[in-house]
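Exercise 7. Given the encoded structure of a 721-residue chain, write a plausible sequence.
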């Protein structure tokens, strides 16, 4: 009877003994899913108690069809202490190794005409809802032939006395006809067609079929381009829970909205909706649907607590863009919007909301601190799992709920110094280079007869002379990078870049070496994903599995891996990226010593501020700038890095573990000179993996150790003929 839109689900929260989660965070997650903190023992409820052993949650989980299995409703007990789950059991005290909350709905793929609904079978429609609809909208529904002549006369008389529309004369069957078959024109001919068609429907279908069709069809409001149809979706949209969990006052409010979804919108006109809701509750009392005690209790319930914008069903348009683009290519828009598919995705709602908050709060702070025009700076973030490529969060702009231009996917901007790891990787893949190879940080020699020859400068305008490869990369020195790139060949760097990004080769102008190439945050994230995963290319994944309307699997999307960098070389590169954090351009980060790797980037004239960083679990790419491409005067470190810092503060950062390969040894050197040192002669030490037997000179003022003397003697003998 209906086109049933595909429903899109985020990752479910997994709980197990030892899992890291604060009690407040679990409470927020239960609220997100519409669980009520109540003593009533029904699915969708929980209780929370405090004791010396921690905070104990008693949760009555709803049934749910996951991508791999169906779980019936079950009661569990869970204790949290000091941010860890310390106990997890079923209601019968049986220990549970792992349990999942329901996967929250984050979107749907509805038809072009905008109708969205959750279909309810007759067995899923509460009897109290059916009885209330009949009592309020059509008292003689069970006996009339599709229209109610006495009802029409009675409604006309009541409305005449009231001076306004107080009652409607249409039966439930007529309302179904108008919604399903006809338009809203107020003409006599349309009303006659409505009446005739209602009689035909009543003759051909049972009353149960008609009331069930009405429950699924009726219009209950508008959510942007999405039309909310039926009580199944209406219950989720207004109350964030299934219709079978609605209280009488909530059912009364939904029945109120039928009369005028805009006029009685509880979010825009709460007082108006409250008054009519209480009249509906009075009709429920008169019909014997609720008793007087329940009526007194329900009319005292405020409407504001149930009519706020729901958390759990928050739609994430930037992430949904990725999902739609992938699935429409495979299945087509018509199938996705009509077959009732269930699409399980990689989105983590907790990380998504943390990323949105990081953008909103940090941009606001930057604008205030730098006296910039409020609200004009924009940003984009893409967070993925650094090992699997699963996309955890996508922020397409400052207004995360805006269904418009998605900067994370479509904003293609110059990446600046984010390209430098590719330059240094290309060098490290040649045998003559290692992390302490000397580079010349000096102006390029002039080219005869070329007045407009490429003439790069360091960001601070200074020249540093001879520096180590590690310092050149960490301090993002343009001159040293240019000398290195020209020596190893721009074409070689461009070829390596193309291989890592799986894109066609870029132009081979020297400016390419310093980031004169345009990419989107998503493309940058995929490039840095090769570094974060230890040299393996793993395409970004947003969809895990697709089920049909019966819960049977249609397709699973497995992890695919392709090695693009050898373990030795990616090990050296990631040490450089960690040094960027601890001693280089990203050292202003509060996570500089947390074992995180990353790289800042700034395009010409500070138009684009970039940062891409990763630990053992998460890779995040951030862009900050203006849509009109004007200069923001933000570098990667005082723009995008600040947004990343705010996001990282909400994540469980795990240090990037890097072990030197067998043919390498760790050498402690002074950061600036690149010479061997210790704490007695330098307060700026870094540890670098170098090929064994690499000659490293001693830093000025350092006392040679016996190991140094032995190494020098050994090297002297090796050089003798």
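Solution.
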């Amino acid at each position: 009877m209906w086109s049933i839109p595909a429903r899109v689900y985020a990752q479910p929260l997994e709980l197990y003994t030892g899992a890291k989660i604060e009690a407040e965070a679990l409470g927020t997650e239960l609220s997100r899913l519409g669980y009520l903190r109540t003593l009533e023992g029904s699915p969708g409820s929980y209780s929370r108690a405090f004791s010396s052993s921690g905070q104990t949650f008693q949760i009555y989980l709803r049934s749910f069809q996951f991508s791999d299995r169906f779980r019936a409703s079950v009661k569990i007990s869970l204790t949290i202490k000091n941010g860890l789950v310390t106990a997890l059991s079923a209601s019968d005290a049986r220990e549970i190794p792992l349990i999942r909350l329901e996967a929250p709905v984050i979107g749907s793929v509805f038809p072009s005409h905008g109708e969205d609904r959750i279909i309810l079978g007759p067995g899923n429609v509460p009897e109290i809802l059916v009885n209330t609809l009949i009592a309020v909208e059509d008292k003689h529904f069970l006996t009339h032939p599709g229209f109610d002549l006495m009802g029409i006369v009675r409604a006309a008389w009541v409305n005449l006395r009231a001076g306004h529309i107080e009652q409607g004369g249409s039966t439930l069957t007529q309302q179904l006809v108008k919604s399903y078959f006809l338009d809203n024109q107020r003409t006599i001919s349309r009303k006659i067609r409505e009446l005739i068609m209602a009689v035909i429907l009543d003759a051909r279908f049972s009353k149960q079929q008609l009331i069930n069709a009405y429950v699924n069809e009726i219009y209950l409001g508008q959510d942007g381009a999405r039309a909310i149809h039926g009580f199944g979706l209406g219950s989720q949209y207004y109350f964030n829970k299934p219709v079978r969990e609605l209280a009488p006052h909530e059912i009364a409010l939904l029945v109120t909205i039928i009369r005028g979804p805009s006029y009685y919108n509880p979010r825009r006109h709460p007082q108006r909706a409250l008054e009519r809701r209480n009249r509906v509750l009075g009709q429920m009392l008169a019909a014997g649907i609720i008793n007087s005690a329940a009526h007194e209790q329900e009319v005292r319930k405020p409407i504001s607590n149930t009519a706020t914008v729901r958390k759990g069903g928050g739609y994430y348009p930037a992430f949904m863009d990725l999902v739609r683009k992938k699935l429409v290519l495979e299945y087509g828009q018509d199938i996705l919007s009509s077959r009732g598919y269930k699409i399980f995705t990689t989105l983590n709602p907790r990380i998504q909301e943390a990323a949105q908050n990081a953008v909103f709060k940090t941009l606001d702070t930057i604008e205030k601190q730098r006296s910039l025009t409020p609200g004009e700076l924009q940003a984009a973030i893409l967070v993925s799992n650094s090992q699997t490529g699963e996309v955890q969060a996508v922020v397409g702009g400052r207004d995360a709920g805006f269904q418009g231009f998605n900067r994370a996917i479509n904003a293609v901007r110059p990446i600046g110094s984010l390209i430098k790891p590719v330059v240094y990787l290309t060098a490290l893949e040649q045998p003559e280079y290692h992390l302490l190879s000397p580079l010349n940080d000096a102006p390029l020699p002039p080219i005869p007869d070329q007045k407009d020859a490429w003439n790069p400068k360091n960001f601070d305008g200074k020249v540093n002379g001879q520096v180590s490869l590690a310092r050149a990369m960490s301090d993002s020195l343009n001159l040293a990078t240019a000398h290195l790139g020209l020596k190893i060949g721009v074409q070689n760097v461009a070829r390596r870049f193309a291989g890592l990004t799986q894109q066609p080769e870029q132009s081979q102008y020297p400016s390419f070496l310093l980031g004169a190439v345009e990419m989107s945050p998503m493309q940058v994230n995929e490039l840095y994903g090769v570094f974060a995963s230890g040299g393996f290319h793993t395409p970004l994944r947003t969809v895990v599995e697709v089920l049909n309307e019966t819960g049977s699997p249609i397709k699973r999307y497995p992890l695919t891996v392709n090695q693009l960098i050898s373990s030795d070389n990616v090990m050296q590169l990631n040490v450089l990226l960690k040094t960027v954090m601890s001693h280089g351009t990203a050292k202003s980060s509060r996570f500089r010593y947390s074992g995180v790797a990353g790289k800042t980037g700034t395009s010409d004239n500070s138009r684009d501020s970039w940062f891409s960083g990763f630990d053992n679990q998460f890779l995040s790419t951030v862009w900050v700038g203006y849509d009109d491409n004007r200069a923001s005067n933000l570098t990667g470190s005082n723009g995008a890095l600040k947004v990343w810092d705010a996001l990282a503060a909400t994540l469980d950062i795990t240090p990037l573990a890097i072990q030197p390969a067998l043919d390498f040894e760790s050498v402690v050197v002074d950061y600036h000179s690149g010479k061997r040192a210790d704490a007695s002669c330098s307060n700026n030490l870094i540890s670098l993996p170098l090929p064994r037997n690499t000659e490293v000179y001693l830093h000025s003022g350092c006392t040679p150790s016996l190991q140094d003397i032995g190494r020098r003697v050994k090297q002297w003998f090796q050089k003798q003929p």
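Remark. The CA atoms of residues 544 and 557 lie 5 Å apart. Students should compare their own answers with the one above.
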